[in-house]
Design brief:
Length: 287
């Protein structure tokens, strides 16, 4: 049986530390850190993520400047909202909840967020800082994966890490973060031949694909660390449930370490968003 990488427990620990930091700021008479999550349309999964983020803000004492826009909102309206938030001194972090409705150009909108308020680290300036190994805001999900591996003291130096998925949100930044910790990194994707064999060569295997239970035991080297980023809803109505990209029960017998879904990477993502907001607050206040 694999040991569990418990993202839920680590997220709770980090959130209570972050709440203490916020309390210390306000006790000094400083304003609270502020986060604005912009949501467009009514995608139920996105709405649930936004609610989680707002709840975390409330728990930590972070001021929430969230805005909700109808699905048919014009690009100029969103651009103006972002411009206003860029100027608003109470706001340290801005996040546009993805995916956006298809008439909106998410890249163009994300590029309008000021890099110093780019809470999900997706602005080219922050991605460039990541490539160069400079400090900057880093994408929450891959940063959460790294923090989880660090918490359990899992060695990365010289290890072979295989990241399945090459998105700008998860796969690519995670590969760079693993590289910065001296792992030897392979990025696999939908066009990779014999994906199972590539994955079997991994000491650390990360699945960030969005395919329910793609990773079965024949993808896993015995004793590997397996991180499941995927969140997939399967089934209908009251019988539906969330599963990851890893067939948890089967892989559990083969991996040495494994993240559950839910309770693994998901809670870390929300926590790293809070972490980024406070990091940005400190930078902006010169602390
Ligand atoms: P994406 O759709 O942008 O990227 C998916 C990647 O998987 C692509 O690079 C594609 O090449 C690759 N891929 C697709 N099919 C494949 C296959 N059969 N074999 C190998 N590679 C394949 O998705 P994303 O935004 O990177 O998200 C990936 C998953 O992670 C989704 O399930 C998403 O819901 C989840 N996610 C979870 C969190 C979290 O907090 N836990 C955060 C973000 C995304």
């Amino acid at each position: 049986m694999a040991e569990i990488l418990n993202g839920k427990a680590l997220a709770q620990k980090m959130q209570s530390e972050l709440a203490q930091q916020v309390e210390a700021f306000t006790a000094q008479g400083l304003r609270s850190p502020g986060l604005a999550v912009l949501m467009v349309g009514d995608n139920p999964a996105s709405a649930a993520y936004v609610r989680n983020k707002e709840r975390a803000c409330q728990t930590l004492g972070i001021a929430s400047f969230g805005q909700q826009f109808p699905a048919d909102t014009a690009p100029a309206t969103l651009a103006q909202a972002i411009a206003d938030l860029n100027q608003d001194d109470r706001v340290d972090g801005i996040l546009v909840q993805l995916p956006l409705p298809s008439h909106l150009d998410s890249v163009a909108l994300l590029n309008q967020i000021h890099p110093d308020k780019d809470a999900d680290g997706l602005h080219p300036t922050n991605l460039g800082r990541l490539v160069r190994g400079e400090p900057g805001l880093q994408s929450c999900t891959p940063a959460g994966v790294m923090r989880l591996l660090e918490e359990y003291d899992l060695p990365l130096k010289g290890k072979h890490a295989v990241v399945v998925g090459r998105s700008i949100l998860v796969g690519k930044p995670l590969a760079l973060m693993l590289l910065a910790q001296d792992a030897t990194v392979t990025i696999a994707h939908s066009q990779t031949p014999d994906l199972a064999a590539v994955c079997r060569s991994a000491d650390i295997l990360v699945a960030a694909v969005g395919r329910p239970e793609l990773v079965t035991p024949d993808y896993v080297q015995p004793g590997a660390v397996v991180v499941d980023v995927g969140i997939n809803r399967v089934g209908e109505g009251s019988t539906s449930k969330l599963v990851g990209d890893v067939a948890f029960a089967a892989v559990n017998d083969r991996a040495a370490w494994l993240t559950p879904v839910p309770g693994g990477v998901g809670p870390m993502t929300v926590t790293m968003l809070m972490y980024n907001t406070i990091w940005s607050y400190r930078q902006r206040l010169g602390m």
